[in-house]
Design a protein that fits this description.
This protein is mainly alpha-helical. Helices cover 81% and strands 0% of the residues. Helix 3 runs parallel beside helix 5, helix 4 runs antiparallel to helix 5 and helix 7 packs antiparallel against helix 8. The radius of gyration is 16 Å and the shape is globular.
């Protein structure tokens, strides 16, 4: 399974995370390279997070990052660490989340800078750093659109709409929500 297929599978986890998880487990039975194993663990973590099994998602993301780092594969290492940060944040482990984000930012190649900025913005928004979140969302949007990552762009618009709602700017919030649905 190549990266574009894994990215499609990662996006599909929003609609049916059980199916994504089953497909990942099937693929994990085949011979895979270390980089592929790390990517599969990343998608497994995404599906588990979506299912609300955050602690198990953290384990999958940690294993994915470790394997990717050992295999000198910066893209899957950055993706795994960035998503690890979001799961850790959900568990209230802010310091660990910051460390995982810093790791992701430190190794992220151009191929996943958009995702790392997007998840960094999400982190900042959740801790109330709304100006910093907006700045990161702007950077992320350009890169995600360049990369054709429509699922992340939609999520970005949704999150940014929530941010504008926090600021009582319903006009901008409505625009973002409409963009998320487009």
């Amino acid at each position: 399974m190549d990266l574009p297929d894994l990215l499609k599978l990662s996006a599909q986890r929003h609609g049916d995370p059980q199916v994504s998880l089953r497909l990942v487990h099937q693929r994990q039975q085949a011979d895979t390279t270390d980089e592929e194993r790390s990517q599969l663990l990343w998608v497994e973590g995404l599906a588990l997070h979506e299912l609300g099994d955050t602690a198990t998602a953290v384990d999958a993301f940690r294993r994915a990052a470790a394997i990717a780092t050992e295999a000198s594969a910066p893209d899957p290492a950055a993706r795994a660490n960035a998503n690890l940060a979001i799961s850790l944040q959900l568990l209230g482990r802010q310091d660990e989340a910051r460390k995982a984000l810093a790791e992701a930012q430190g190794v992220a190649p151009d191929s996943c800078q958009g995702l790392v900025h997007y998840l960094s913005a999400t982190f900042e928004q959740r801790i109330g750093n709304l100006d910093r979140a907006l700045e990161l969302y702007r950077r992320a949007e350009t890169l995600l659109m360049r990369d054709g990552d429509r699922a992340s762009v939609a999520g970005l618009h949704l999150n940014r709409g929530v941010l504008h709602s926090y600021r009582n700017d319903e006009v901008l919030a409505s625009r973002e929500y409409a963009a998320a649905e487009a």
